[in-house]
Amino acid sequence: MFQSGALASDRALDADQIQPASLDLRLGAKAYRVRASFLPGPTNTVAAKLDRFKLHEIDLSAGAVLETGCVYIVPLLESLALPGDIAASANPKSSTGRLDIFTRVMTDHGQEFDKIAAGYTGPLYLEVSPRTFPIVVRTGSRLSQIRFRAGSAMLDGPALLDLHGRETLVASETPNITGGGIALSIDLKGSGEGGIIGYRGKHHTGVVDVDKRAAQDAADFWEPLPDRGHGELILDPDEFYILVSREAVHVPPDFAAEMTPFDPLVGEFRVHYAGFFDPGFGHSAAGGTGSRAVLEVRSHEVPFILEHGQIVGRLVYEKMQARPDALYGADLQSNYQAQGLKLSKHFR
Questions:
Q1: pLDDT for 244-300, tens place per residue?
Q2: For residues 177, 179, 181 and 187, what is the CA-based torsion angle, rounded to 10 degrees?
Q3: Residue 287 has what pLDDT?
Q4: Judgement on whether residues 142 and 253 belong to the same structural domain of the protein
Q5: Binning pLDDT at 50, 70 and 90, where does residue 218 land?
Q6: Which of 34, 182, 225, 337 is 20 to 30 A removed from 171 (C-alpha atoms)?
Q7: Tens-digit pLDDT profile for residues 195-210
Q8: Those residues with Cβ within 8 angstroms of residue 172's Cβ, 6 or more apart along the chain or in another chain
Q9: 187 lies in which domain range?
C-alpha cells in the first residue's frame, strides 16, 4: 500500500511499524488542546473544527506532557489514499489501553471515530485523552494502530464453531459461541486466596513516558488487588482496573481477532479499550500457549459488582488475506505473548 500510494508518511517507517495484521500510527509534530471531543461531520475537515475549538498548540518534537482529564487532537504522520474497495478501522495499541489512554482516530468529514470509509483520501488525526496517568509523548510515538479490509472477513457462527473445533480458540470445556462471537469471562480467583487478581490505578502519580520500557516502578502507579476468597470485585466509578480473562485465547496464524464490548444492558462497565489480537496470539508455535486476555475495565456512573466467571466481552474472528510473514510472539519478541495478568511494558 505504501508502494502504490494508498498509504503515505511524512517520514521513513520505523523498522517494526508494520505489524502482522496492522500498521502502527505515529504522532506528528504538534498536539492541540481542545475544549471538548468532537467529530468533524460530513461538511467539515478536522482542521476547520480545530480552528474553532483549540485552546493552545503544543510542540511534540522534543516531547511534551499530556495531562489527565484533557482532550488533545494530534495530526498523524501517516495519511491515506484508499482504493474504493478497501476500508480501514483503528484502535488503541495494547500498551495504550493498559495505561488508560483514551484514543480515537478521526478523518476529514468523518461521522464515526476509528472507522475509515473505503476510498478515503486525506490526513489522519488522533484524539488523545489520558484518563489515569499523565503521559509524555513526542513526534513518532505510537498509540494507535490501523487495519485494512477488503470485503467482509468476519466469521459467522457456523464458521467460528468449525474453526474452534479444529484449532481450540478458547480453553473452555463449554465455549459460549453465539452470533459469531466467543464469550470471554473474568477471572477473580487467580492462583488462590491471597493471590493477586488485578490492579487498580493510583491517583496523583508521576508521568509515564510512552516510549520507555520498564522505566517506572509499578508500586508507584498501581495498587494490587488480592483475592479475598469471595470471587467478586466492586468496581468504583471513575477508577481504572487491570484484570484478566478466565479463558486462554488462541488466534491461529491465518486469522485475527477483536474483543467487542458485551451488551451494556448486563452491566454498567466498559472492558478493553485495546481490543485487537494479532495472528499468532496464544499460538503454541509462536510461544503463546496459554495467553489470556488482559482486560482494561472501568465502571460507568454507579458502583458495579463483578463476579468470577461473569461474561465481559466477546471475541470475533476475521480471516486474513494471507498468512503474515511474522507472527505475534516469538517472531517479533512481542510484549504480551504467553501472558497472564500483566501490566503494560512501561512498568517493572
A1: 988 888 899 999 999 886 655 555 567 765 578 889 888 765 444 558 888 889 887
A2: -60
A3: 45
A4: no
A5: very high
A6: 225
A7: 899 999 999 999 999 9
A8: 247
A9: 157-319
Least confidently predicted of 13-22, 28-37, 135-144, 319-328: 319-328
Asked, for residue 219, whether it belongs to a domain, the answer is yes
Q: What is the pTM of this model?
A: 0.92
CA-to-CA distance for 235 and 303, rounded, in angstroms? 5
The CA-CA-CA angle for residues 95, 190, 306, to 5°, reads 80
- Tell me whether residue 344 is in a domain: no
Kind of pairing between the strands at 276-277 and 255-261: antiparallel
How many distinct structural domains can be found in the chain?
2
Q: What are the DSSP calls for 7-21, one per residue?
A: EEESSPPPTT-B-SS
Provide DSSP, 19-35: -SS-EEEEB-SEEEEES
Sign of CA dihedral 138, 16, 13, 296: negative
Contact between 292 and 317 under an 8 Å Cβ cutoff? The reply is no
Nearest residue to 97 via CA among 125, 132, 65: 132
Same domain, 15 and 95: yes
Whether residues 168 and 110 fall in one domain: no
CATH number, residue 111:
2.70.40.10
Q: Is residue 347 part of a domain?
A: no
* In a shared domain, residues 99 and 165: no
Regarding whether 136 and 269 lie in a shared domain, the answer is: no
Q: Are 279 and 302 contained in the same domain? A: yes
